[in-house]
Amino acid sequence: xxxxxxxxxxxxxxxxxxxxxxxxxxxxxxxxxxxxxxxxxxxxxxxxxxxxxxxxxxxxxxxxxxxxxxxxxxxxxxxxxxxxxxxxxxxxxxxxxxxxxxxxxxxxxxxxxxxxxxxxxxxxxxxxxxxxxxxxxxxxxxxxxxxxxxxxxxxxxxxxxxxxxxxxxxxxxxxxxxxxxxxxxxxxxxxxxxxxxxxxxxxxxxxxxxxxxxxxxxxxxxxxxxxxxxxxxxxxxxxxxxxxxxxxxxxxxxxxxxxxxxxxxxxxxxxxxxxxxxxxxx
Length: 282
Description:
The chain has 282 residues and is an alpha+beta fold. It has helices at 2-32, 57-65, 101-106, 148-160, 178-183, 253-260; strands at 77-79, 92-96, 122-130, 136-144, 209-211, 219-223, 226-230, 264-265, 273-274, 277-279. Strands 1-2-3-4 form a four-stranded antiparallel beta sheet. A three-stranded antiparallel beta sheet has the order 5-10-8, with helices on one face. A three-stranded antiparallel beta sheet has the order 7-6-9. Strand 6 and strand 7 form a beta hairpin. Helix 4 packs antiparallel against helix 6 (253-260). The radius of gyration is 46 Å and the shape is elongated.
């Protein structure tokens, strides 16, 4: 009896095992038969174009103005902005007023109490020059506004060519005494004065004339039968047929540059000779 029960129990276990195997087999077939769903990829977006900053006219003006001299920080002074020179850091002009430090330096000296030239007609120039020692020096000039740009261009060209000029100081450093300035071979421009025995302002008095290396290029004139030489210590250089350095003649670079800019040379005068002198009258 027990043997029959054991056999029946084993049969039941076998049947159950077969049923379980059959169930898992069907489930696997059902899983494998499901259609594969392809995942849809999102559309690829084109990279956005970078915005190029638009250069406004105001910005362009700002860039251009960087190449121009800026206003001076000194009271009563404004730098010129129309010069054609290349090196505007070293060759520049300043418009100044009676409230400026520049005017304080010339008041009562080259700008005398009876001066009839308005301060607004004058310009202060800063230049570089090669001295007789072969070194670079800073120079200062007061001139008429009408020749300011000419002088800046001329002195830049002279400097580039290493043309020797011993000194370029304001005549005020010699208390506005022409003879003292010339005797020291100082090249200068403005010094208010009238032409001798007249009420006409001289071209130096209007800032329209400049003297270059005056010691070696003196002013010569016969007065009452006697030879007048200015400066007096320039007598060894009156003979222009002699060969000596720093002599200005028609082959000289200073002569060529000044005349190219419309200046006339005192060395070509007939009643007198002013070999140091270049002027450009209105």
